[in-house]
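BUG: 3D viewer hangs when loading the predicted structure for this chain

Environment: internal workstation, default settings.
Expected: structure renders.
Actual: progress bar stalls at 90%.

Input used:
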Amino acid sequence: MILPGLTTVTTRHLSVEETVDIVSEQGLKGIEWEGIKHVIPGDLKAAKNARKLCAANQIAIPSYGSYYRVGASEEAGMSFSTVMETAVALGAPCIRIWAGEQDYEKSSAAYIGKIVRETLRIADLAADQGLQLIFEFHGDSLTNTTENALEFAKMVKHPAVTFSWQPPHALTQRECEESLTAMLPLLNTVHVFQWDMGNYVDTGYTRERFMAERIDWVRHPLKHGIDRWLSYLKVASKTGRDHWALIEFSKGDTREQLIEDSKTLLELIGSIY
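Structure tokens produced before the viewer hung:
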């Protein structure tokens, strides 16, 4: 079953209470609280408050978006034990994390080995608490491409290790479908947003040049990608397991766009079942 929800990166400018109100009013079923503003690691009071508000509004908390980077966060002062304690206080069964802080192909064997060892260590800790890890499917990490994520997954095979998926930027619909299909055995959550290169395509930019120059992706209303997203969600539904489809970014991070995107997501899921 595909379940509609929100990861609160797009509502950082709103309070926890305002975020809960929007999710409740729009009929979304869950919130992944992010760890930069709303529920900072170690802020157990904030975690318990978010949990209480969600429970009062029959909203699930599928995961904690901790922004913990394996192999880097511990050294920067964010211990995994603190992240895990926060997730437990929040009532989140999963913790979203990152596989290091550089792309796989830019990483030495020694660096990759370090991330693998550390992943297996914290996976054991998470499993002891009945928690799962969700690796971000993203650039600047060892899971920056589908192929790299799958290779990394082989090295960190563990009952507590799962992965998120989001459409690789500027790929065709078919390429994205193939990416998601390959990730299905590992899949936990899906991050939902509609981005492209905008008018840069008309000036001859390739995906590689666009990314190399680190130009900001152009955000669009989710309804502009309705055919793509209907296809992606249908692919995800093939596992027969529950997967949260979490709106991650809305155009302009506005309340109005989030409301519209929420309606679009609900319509998409409704058309599948």
